[in-house]
Amino acid sequence: PAVMAALRAFGAKGTCWFPRGPGARLPARFCSRVPAGAGGPESEVQLTCARQRDGIRDIVLSNPRKRNALSLAMLKSLQKDILHEAESKDLKVIVISAEGPVFSSGHDLKELTSEQGQGYHAEVFQTCSEVMMLIQNHPVPVIAMVNGLATAAGCQLVASCDIAVASDKASFATPGVNVGLFCSTPGVALGRAVPRKVALEMLFTGEPISAQEALLHGLVSRVVPEAQLQEETRRIATKIASLSRPVLALGKAAFYRQLPQDLKTAYCLTSQTMVDNLALEDGQEGIGAFLKKRRPVWSH
């Protein structure tokens, strides 16, 4: 309940997903658009595309002409797609990917000039921070599927996801220092995903790391050949979608809650989580199914 209250606090109003009944398919492709003046000069620019099937919601950054820059409008569009029906039992996992050769180039630097003013700049970084925290606070796992370059806030987005699958063509960087803007906010997610010295070398030099280096340091979960990226990501998402949503939601929340705690407090928190898990309908269903040597039937 606390997690869902936090999600609602971000504000899910104004989403423009098509309504559907349980089990119904979304249209093959649905795109969020932004009117002129809503964080960018373009009128009706396609920003993100989303579709959902079999419990898996695919969200695609769809502005390759601008290297999928995380403009204010793009961030708000992504936020809406993540928040849409977050409490629905039909949603089991979210996959974030991108069109084109660049996953995301980070913030749109045209929005960060002095002409925009500090108030606008503050809104950009606040919205970006909300999106990154939303991913961690969301009840279902969020997977990044990365094929290409992810820089600055784009790298931050990958680091913020629960799981990241990258192709061998992917690379990652926090190059803000090269244009006089230190990647301080990307450093929050990066510094929690990789060792400190690795994060600081990336932040201080702006130099990219390869997909294999990202795997070595823990920025991504696995690296596969480009031709296998979709298949491998789908395999992981399908496995997650086959499991109990309440159990996963409880476990994900507990995992992140215990991370900053001392050892004793972490075990205290997670011990209570195990007790709470056993009190769930699906907790007893899973154990009962195992003991009776049958497949479990999850509540959702």
TrEMBL record:
This is Enoyl-CoA hydratase domain-containing protein 3, mitochondrial. Belongs to the enoyl-CoA hydratase/isomerase family. One of its GO terms (cellular component) is mitochondrion. One of its GO terms (biological process) is fatty acid metabolic process. PANTHER family: ENOYL-COA HYDRATASE DOMAIN-CONTAINING PROTEIN 3, MITOCHONDRIAL, PTHR43602. One of its GO terms (molecular function) is hydro-lyase activity. Keywords: Fatty acid metabolism, Lipid metabolism, Mitochondrion, Transit peptide. It is found in: Mitochondrion. May play a role in fatty acid biosynthesis and insulin sensitivity. Its main location: mitochondrion.
